[in-house]
Structure formats: C-alpha cells, structure tokens
C-alpha cells in the first residue's frame, strides 16, 4: 500500500507542534470545505486533510503513525535497534489505552473547528460528527435530432470517490447508464438525485446534472422545439403544385405543395417537431432546385418563356 504522508498533506514538518498541526488544519479546511470552496476536487482534498488531522491531532495515534515504515526515498533516519524492538506493531487503529486529556479536548472541539471555519454555531457534543453533504456534479451529454424524437441511452463517465483498504478516500472513476427521455431540447438539464459525489457521515449524496446538447445536423435546423429543413423544388412544381415525399426525423411523409407557392415559403407540419407538451412543428422551406440540364429541358424552358410575355421590370 502506498505510504500517505499526513505531514505533507497538512503542509507541516514532521516535528511540528500540536498547535501548528491544528492551525494548518484550520487553514486547509477553510480553503477546501465543499460548502464554501470552488477549488476543483475540493471535497476530496477536504477529506484528505480531515483524515490527516484525525491521525496527527492525537499524540498517541500520531506516535503510532510515526512508527510506520517510511519510504526509503524520503531518507528518513532509521530508528535505533533497541527502540525498534520496543515499538509495537504499526497500526492505524486507536490505541486501547486511555487517550490524554488534550486528545479528548481535540476530539470534542473537532466539530467546533469546522463550525468556526464556516461561521456556524457549535453543535451539541452528542451531534459533533463530520457530516458533510456531497458536492453536485455536472456533465454534458450529446444526442442526435432523431434521438430527441425517440429517447435513447447514454453511458456517462465521471470522477468519484472510492476508499482504499484503510478506508481513506481516493479518486476513482465510475460510469452510469442514463436513460435520456424523448422530447428534450438543447439547453435542458436532467437531474439525477443522489448520483453526485458521496457525502461524509450522515451527509446526503450530491446530485448529478446532465446538460443536454443536440448535435448540429446537416439537414435540420432547430429552434426550440420547431425544426426547419429546405425542400428544393423546380419552378414548374411551385407553379403547378406537387405531392413530394420528404424525410423527417420521425420518418418520411407526403407533403402537398399548393399551386402558386413562392420560393421561401414555409410549409408547416403541425406537431411534427420535437415531442413535448405541446409538441413543436416541422417546417419545410421551399428553395429553388438546381436547373435541369440537357437539350430537352432547354427547349421546354424556351417554350415556357415564349408562352408568357412577362417582364418583372414592367410590373
């Protein structure tokens, strides 16, 4: 198991006094407390600081910790052989003997320190525990236009806290399979209660907020729940009218183009936009199709030009 340097966590030397350790804890707890801190992974750092202080604030548990094997790369002086023989087996557990009175006072004041940091009144002794609500988490999930019509599932990965064999929190990763219901629009947020960072003690777990983004589409344009797309038509079709088979995110539909329609006209398909209460609409915007090439097409256009003596400048 990797050695945890609690002195380094609190930023104090190994020979620091109890007052120095207490002062360092106050400073770091104020900096990383989840209720007031905006630091990344503040809750994890707060837990690490609390774990270090819980061990070092009591002279007895601190002495047991100091006897743990120290990594060789730190160049800690080896203990004298005689002292090593007298030392009990290293352990993180609290010693069975009665703790010093100063350690008892530190235990009693542990909750009060957090109260002072956050500007809260001291709690009664029987409720003085480290109960901290878990922080909320936020992530982005992208879906396609078609998935906004039908709903879908997404795997969402995010950092979390797990505990090592000593019960200490470390950063891990978890993946949730999330049901994305149909009818969501870009900018909407899904809240998953209790799926954020875990709380401490009796503190509740945080929530997970998923910001939904609909990916840009090569054919469709989205405005709220309404969807727009272009439908290319020839001058003959807009003049005489036509029945056109058009694709939509929910499948193809038959669209009636009224005679005399102009380019730029929007043909509305009510309720065919993104589902909801109410559902959006689907708009087919008439645009001019590319000219048809070939001699036959040119002759037809020339005949049409001769049949209608129309000059836009005269009218």
- Biggest pleated-sheet summary: 4 strands, mixed
Give the strand tally.
11
Q: What does the overall shape look like? A: rod-shaped
How big a fraction of the residues is strand? 15-25%
Helical/strand content category = alpha+beta
Number of helices: 9
Mean residue pLDDT: 77
Quote the distance from N terminus to C terminus.
90 Å
Multimeric state of these chains?
single chain
Which bin fits the share of residues in helices? 25-40%
Radius of gyration: 35 Å
Order of helices and strands: HHHHHHEHEEEEEEHEEEEH
Question: What would you note in describing this structure?
Answer:
The protein has 315 residues and is of the alpha+beta class. It has helices at residues 6-10, 18-32, 42-56, 59-66, 81-86, 101-118, 145-150, 235-240, 295-307, and strands spanning 137-143, 152-163, 169-180, 189-192, 208-214, 221-223, 226-233, 242-246, 253-257, 266-269, 282-288. The strands form four sheets. A four-stranded mixed sheet has the order 6-7-11-10. Strands 1-5-4 form a three-stranded mixed sheet. A two-stranded antiparallel ribbon has the order 2-3. A hairpin with a 5-residue loop joins strand 2 and strand 3 (169-180). Helix 2 (18-32) runs antiparallel to helix 3 (42-56). The radius of gyration is 35 Å and the shape is rod-shaped. The N and C termini lie far apart (90 Å).
């Amino acid at each position: 198991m990797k050695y945890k340097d609690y002195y380094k966590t609190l930023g104090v030397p190994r020979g620091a006094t109890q007052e120095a350790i207490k002062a360092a804890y106050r400073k770091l707890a104020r900096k990383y407390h989840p209720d007031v801190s905006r630091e990344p992974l503040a809750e994890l750092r707060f837990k690490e600081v609390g774990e270090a202080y819980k061990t070092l604030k009591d002279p007895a548990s601190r002495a047991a910790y100091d006897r743990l094997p120290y990594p060789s790369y730190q160049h800690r002086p080896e203990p004298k052989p005689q002292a090593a023989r007298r030392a009990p087996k290293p352990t993180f557990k609290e010693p069975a003997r009665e703790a010093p009175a100063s350690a008892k006072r530190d235990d009693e004041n542990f909750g009060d320190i957090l109260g002072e940091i956050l500007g809260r009144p001291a709690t009664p002794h029987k409720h003085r525990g480290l109960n901290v609500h878990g922080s909320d988490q936020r992530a982005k999930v992208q879906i396609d236009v078609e998935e906004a019509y039908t709903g879908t599932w997404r795997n969402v990965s995010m950092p979390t806290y797990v505990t090592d064999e000593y019960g200490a929190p470390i950063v891990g990763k978890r993946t949730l399979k999330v049901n994305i219901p149909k009818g969501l629009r870009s900018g909407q947020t899904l809240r998953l209660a209790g799926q954020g960072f875990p709380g401490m003690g009796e503190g509740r777990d945080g929530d997970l907020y998923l910001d939904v983004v609909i990916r840009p589409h090569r054919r469709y344009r989205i405005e709220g729940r309404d969807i727009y797309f272009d439908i290319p038509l020839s001058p003959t079709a807009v003049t005489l009218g036509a029945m056109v088979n058009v694709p939509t995110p929910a499948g193809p539909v038959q669209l009636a183009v009224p005679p005399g329609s102009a380019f730029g006209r929007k043909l509305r398909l009510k309720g065919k936009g993104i589902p909801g209460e109410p559902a959006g609409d689907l708009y087919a915007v008439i645009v001019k199709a590319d000219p048809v090439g070939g001699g036959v097409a040119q002759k037809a256009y020339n005949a049409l030009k001769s049949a209608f003596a129309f000059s836009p400048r005269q009218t």
